[in-house]
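lol ok so funny story. i was supposed to be doing the assay writeup but got distracted and ended up predicting the structure for this chain instead. priorities right. anyway since i did it might as well share w the group, maybe its usefull for someone
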Amino acid sequence: MKRFLFLAALAATLLQGCRNAPAGPSALDVIMTRTSVRAFTGEPVSDAQIETILRAGMAAPTAVNYQPWRFIVLRDREVIESLYGEGRGRDVYLGAGAIIVVCGKTTWERRPFGQPDAPAETTPNPFWFEDCSAAAENILLAAHALGLGAVWTAGYPAMDRVNGLIETLGIPGDVLPLCVIPVGVPAENPEPKDKWNPENIHWDKW
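and the output, tada:
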């Protein structure tokens, strides 16, 4: 009986502690306060943080649940130097704790509509861009929620950047790099931009 009372009291104490623990930011807080961070301290981003960020990316909506996203995580300094060692904006990449290249598989294997027993055909996936954009936004939000900074930088359709990434990283022919996201501990704290503009809203018709 004493053991039962002790365990009950312990459970009540733990539960009260959970209730008193400070709540994290709400989803709306994360969305409204996220901003592009382009300066980092150079501190590493942990494996656990990377996994959390990529789990958030893979939680994005995707047409017919095809999940065309593919991710390349860059930490090797020589590889990063070979891509971004020169030119404008180099400090954004060289100072990051990690870089996530968001890629998309541009084809899919599907059966003709209404023919479930027909062999699957490889055809262009017209939705890879939208799906991977949703994943990239989730990555930006997850990094911010973890107290990290991140910024979306161009890949597709800037083909000079795309071709450099394909060649350096060995990306296969049916995959395109959508964007490159440096992630790290922020060395700056820019104010989020207020982008609310009711003039961009139309009710019921244009």
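DSSP finds seven helices and seven strands in the chain. Residues 2-15 have pLDDT under 50 and may be disordered.
back to the writeup now i swear
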